[in-house]
Structures are given as C-alpha cells and as structure tokens.
Amino acid sequence: MKKITSALLLLLLSVGVQAQLLWKISGNGLQKPSYIIGTYHLAPVSFTDSIKGLKEAMASTEQVYGEIVTADMMKPENLAKMQAAMMLPDGQTLDKLYTADEMTRINAMIKSIMGVDMSNPIVSQQLGKMTPQALQTQLAVLIYLKKHPSFNPNEGFDNYFQKEATTKGKPVGGFETFDLQMDVLFNSMTLERQKQLLLCLADNLEFAEEQTENVIKAFFTQYLDGIEKAMDAKMNNTCDDTPEEKETLIYGRNGNWMKQMPEIMKQKPTFFAVGAGHLPGERGLISLLRKAGYTVEGVK
User: Fold this and answer.
1) What is the C-alpha to C-alpha distance for residues 292 and 294, in angstroms, rounded to an integer?
2) Mind listing the pLDDT tens digit for each residue in 278-295?
3) CA-CA distance, 91 to 271, in Å (whole number)?
4) How far, in Å, CA of 28 to CA of 295, rounded?
5) Are strands 63-66 and 295-298 parallel, antiparallel or unpaired?
6) Diameter of the chain by CA atoms?
7) Per-residue 3-state assignment (H helix, E strand, C coil) for the chain
8) Phi/psi at 36 (nearest 5 deg)?
C-alpha cells in the first residue's frame, strides 16, 4: 500500500498559511470577479470561519452555483429516485450476489464500523437490499462518524453556500441535474465492479480509514495538492480507481462544468462551490480556468 507519510502530514500543517480553498477568478473580459471554493461534505459549517475573505467574497457575488441545486435533493420525487437508484432489483439481495465467504468478510467490516452486522434482522433489512456502490457510500460516511461523532451530516460545509444565498434572496444554480448526478454516483459502474469494490473496502478497511483521515487533514489545512494526493493513494491492485472511473467522477465533469462557467460568470459575478477534489491538478478547474485566459489567485 502507498500511504501518505507522516512527513507529508507535517508538510500539510506547515503550508497551511499559503494553502487555499477559496480562489478569485478575474480577467478575460469579466466586469467583476467571481470566486470558487473547494468543499468537503464531511466538514462542519463552522469551518467557514477559518477561511479568509469568505464572507466578503460571498457578499460581492450575485449568485451561487454548485454541482447541483442541493434543495432539489429534498423534493419528494427526487428522494424516491435516489432510494430507487440505491436499491438492487426486486428479489435481489447482497447475500445472493456474494459467496458465503465473501459475505463473512463484508459482515466483519460492517460489524467493525457499526457494532452489528447483517445477521441482525434490522440491519439486514436496511442494508441487505442496497447496491454494493450505495452501501459503500453509506459506510464511508459511517467510517467518518465513528471517529468524529459530533459531526452533524445535516449541517455540512458543502450545503452552506446555497442555503446562505437562498436566505439572502440570491439565485442558486447547478452544473448538473439531479438525475445526472444520481447516474454518476450509483449507475456509472457495472454491478460486477461494484461487487469488487465493496470487497476491496471489506479487505482493506484500515487503508480506507487512513485515506479518509488524510483527506480531512489536508482539507482542514486548505492544501489542495494534499487532498489530491490523499485521494489518489494507491494499493497498486484492482482496488484502485481505473482511468475510466476517474474520468467519469472527476475529469469529464470538470470539462463539462468548464464549458458552462464563462457564460455564467459573464451574466453575473458568481460564487462557485464544488467538491475540493475538482480543483487541483492539470485537469482541475483552477488549471482549466487559467488555460482559458482567466486570472485565478488565492484569496488572502
């Protein structure tokens, strides 16, 4: 396994003063600057107090854009769609997808995280009909909550910006529709690949827990390169993201969002809030904006 070393984590702390989550976008014909911030769904709203210039950037912009309009997620018809996307076809259950040995490994992981496993009828009813991808997504949140029990998922950092805009009467928009994001999150992998990745989590739980902690440490020091390195940590086997999966989850979406941003910023100065993993790297949004002729600089 390739792990983030303790030396790198010390580096994250030392570069925190220069590191940035909030960036100003100007030039290339813009009458007023826009801003973009990297978010993380497992960070608390209180972290906004640690970001220099954030209140001023939000006040100076006239609309907020995110990956999707988060309020759409709470519409009854979309909640129903999400639930359907997370479930296996009627009559199918996880214990029918996996061998007895594989289910033993999965149950050991679930018990490590939750204290109970699917031998409990209530847990089986709740988890046993989920797709492997949906279950893995739920377990990733529980892995975090196990070490950070005070975190309230209903008061997440990434929802804050759209809620604030709505409170102040500012328009809110999204790069993607709810349906598209559901497809990306739950339907972009074959069932066989989903099965494999859930077993990867079961067999490498310590690696996953460490990776989550390294992403959080990098995020709280506002070190984008550290976030990218933590997310890209490899086990050098079939458990690693494939180039195609990276394209679907990150780079292809970056390209699609970049096509929309010039016209959005031209219409109104905009505050963009998207997952921090979309900002760094050669194909990250910061680099793409600069290649398109914009000046992108950290807010001090």
Assistant:
1) 6
2) 999 999 999 999 999 999
3) 45
4) 8
5) unpaired
6) 63
7) CCCCCHHHHHHHHHCCCCCCCEEEEECCCCCCCEEEEEECCCCEHHHHHHCCCHHHHHHHCCEEEECCCHHHHHCHHHHHHHHHHCECCCCCCHHHHCCHHHHHHHHHHHHHHHCCCCCCHHHHHHHCCECHHHHHHHHHHHHHHHHCCCCCHHHEHHHHHHHHHHHCCCCEEECCCHHHHHHHHHCCCCHHHHHHHHHHHHHCHHHHHHHHHHHHHHHHCCCHHHHHHHHCCCCCCCCCCCHHHHHHHHHHHHHHHHHHHHHHHHHCCEEEEEEHHHCCCCCCHHHHHHHCCCEEEECC
8) -135, 135
Neighbours of 105 (CB within 10 A): 17
270-275 and 63-66 beta bridge pairing: parallel
pTM above 0.85, yes or no: yes
The pair of three-digit structure tokens given for residue 284, joined into one six-digit string? 């990250």
Q: Are 1 and 214 in contact (CB under 8 A)?
A: no
Name the one residue in this structure whose structure tokens are 């950037």: 57
From CA 48, how far away is CA 298, in angstroms rounded?
A: 16
Q: Taking residues 125-138, what's their average pLDDT? A: 94
Q: What's the token pair of residue 219?
A: 């995020």
- Model confidence over 154-204: pLDDT tens digits? 777 888 999 999 999 999 999 999 999 999 988 899 999 999 999 999 999
Q: What is the pLDDT of residue 147?
A: 82
Q: Say if CB 188 and CB 198 are below 8 A apart.
A: no
